[in-house]
Structure formats: structure tokens, C-alpha cells
Design goal:
This protein is α/β, with parallel strands linked by helices. It has a single domain, classed as Alpha-Beta Barrel (TIM Barrel). The chain has ten helices and twelve strands. An eight-stranded parallel barrel has the order 1-4-5-6-7-10-11-12, surrounded by seven helices. It starts with a strand and ends in a 9-residue tail after the last helix.
């Protein structure tokens, strides 16, 4: 069985890490470079930095942040938020990012996934899916865009299948219903996506307990768990998560 990854997520707004519930009511959680370096030292396998208010006018600021992170963090990290072109991904990769995640731009123009995979390799291309349960259709979820604020009529499972064929190398799957609630991951959603694709699926949205992380890895068949507030506000450390998972016979990379 492949080693499962523990990935702290840093939502960045105006060069500060913030966290809210369902992407709303944001509160400050610290400096992104300092937090990233701390998680790296604590044994995190990777990091995700999401510029949650990204627009083209703030791109220069994010490039500078990526450069600072690359100088201080020595584990792979993904950058996302507001990316609309392959050239922007090129800029971020050159600044030091290992991968870039795309959401809205890929929904608007799916061919961007193919273009980026051919240009940079699938291993650099992460499709971010922000999914919400479809009312009146149990077992179905639709894709949302623009930081979860705008629904589409795209089925999340079918979108994941299409994205893999186009060249996405990984899926960052966030349950918009569970995000920030600490009530547990959406196991049914995660399992549905994981069963539909062969590329790794990162489960996001709802981390609140050690048990919830184990559950989404076991029952949800996720390849990695992403969490934010439980790490930012000191409820658990990366080591505590890994120790718990190892005791439950879930393969994780040991903390040195």
C-alpha cells in the first residue's frame, strides 16, 4: 500500500494565512512562510498554498510569496488560486512551486489541462474540484467555481474522469458542504471520485479529528488528507496525525 500524505493547507489573502467556514468569515492564522516552514520541520509531506482572492493584479505578489516559500520550505508545495493560463503556471514553477492547481480556468476551458500537461508534465498539474451536494439527487455532486461561490451544472465525478483523460496528474477535492466545519470529510464524495479515477485524490474539507482523517483514507480511499485550521490553531500537530495513523496500520512517512 502506498504511503499516505499529510498536507497542511494555507489559504492566503493579502499575504496572510486565513481560515473560515465554507470559505466565509475569514480570520487570521499567521504568516504563510513561517507556517510553511514550521509544517515542513514538523514532518508534513507537502504543502498547498491557495491564494483565495487571486486576480491578475495580485499575481506579482503571489510570485514573490512563492519565491520566499521556496527559500524556506524544503518539501514539495502546490500553489493555486486565480491561475488562468499556462504562462502563469510557468511563472509560478520558475519561482519555485512544484505543482499548480487549477479550478475555474479549467472548467471554463478544459483544454488548458492538456496544454499544461504537455508543457510541464502531468505531475505538475493539479485539478482542484470544489464540489457541493446536488439537492434532490442523492449521491451526486456538482462543481462550483470562483472559490465555491458560483455553482455549475457539471457533475463532479464525470468532471474528474474527463480531467484525468486531459492530463491532470492529481485531484484536490474539496467538499464545500464540509469545508471549515470540522465535522469530518465527505466520505461518499471522496470515495466516488477515488473509484472513478486512477490518479491520486487529496481529500479536503471537514478535518476535525484524527479519526476523521483515518476514515477518509480508509473508507474514502483518499491518497492524501489536507487540513488547515486544526494545524493553524494548534489542535493537532503533523506528528500527532502521523503517529495516530501509523498505530492504525495506515502507511505514512515517519517524522524524523
Amino acid at each position: 500500500m502506498l504511503t499516505r500524505r499529510i498536507i497542511p493547507c494555507l489559504d492566503v489573502k493579502d499575504n496572510r494565512v486565513v481560515k473560515g467556514i465554507n470559505f466565509l468569515n475569514l480570520r487570521d492564522a499567521g504568516d504563510p512562510v513561517e507556517l510553511g516552514a514550521r509544517y515542513s520541520d514538523e514532518g508534513a509531506d507537502e504543502l498547498v498554498f491557495l491564494d483565495i482572492t487571486a486576480t491578475i493584479r495580485t499575481r506579482k505578489t503571489i510570485v514573490e510569496l512563492v519565491e520566499r516559500v521556496a527559500e524556506n520550505v524544503f518539501i514539495p508545495f502546490t500553489v493555486g488560486g486565480g491561475i488562468t493560463t499556462a504562462d502563469e503556471i510557468d511563472l509560478l514553477l520558475r519561482a519555485g512551486a512544484d505543482k499548480c492547481s487549477i479550478n475555474t480556468a479549467a472548467v471554463q476551458n478544459p483544454e488548458i489541462l492538456k496544454e499544461c500537461a504537455e508543457r510541464f508534465g502531468s505531475q505538475c498539474v493539479v485539478l482542484a474540484i470544489d464540489a457541493r451536494r446536488t439537492i434532490g439527487k442523492p449521491g451526486h455532486w456538482h462543481v462550483t467555481v470562483k472559490a465555491g461561490s458560483e455553482p455549475t451544472d457539471i457533475d463532479a465525478v464525470q468532471w474528474a474522469i474527463k480531467a484525468e483523460k486531459l492530463g491532470a496528474g492529481e485531484i484536490l477535492l474539496t467538499s464545500m458542504d464540509a469545508d471549515g466545519t470540522k465535522a469530518g470529510y465527505d466520505i461518499e464524495l471522496t470515495r466516488a471520485i477515488a473509484d472513478a479515477v486512477t490518479i491520486p485524490v487529496i481529500a479536503s474539507g471537514g478535518a476535525g479529528t484524527l479519526e476523521s482523517m483515518l476514515e477518509v483514507l480508509e473508507k474514502g480511499q483518499a491518497d492524501a488528507v489536507l487540513a488547515a485550521s486544526i494545524f493553524h490553531y494548534g489542535e493537532f500537530t503533523v506528528k500527532q496525525v502521523k503517529d495516530y495513523l501509523a498505530q492504525a496500520q495506515m502507511p505514512v512517512r515517519p517524522v524524523k
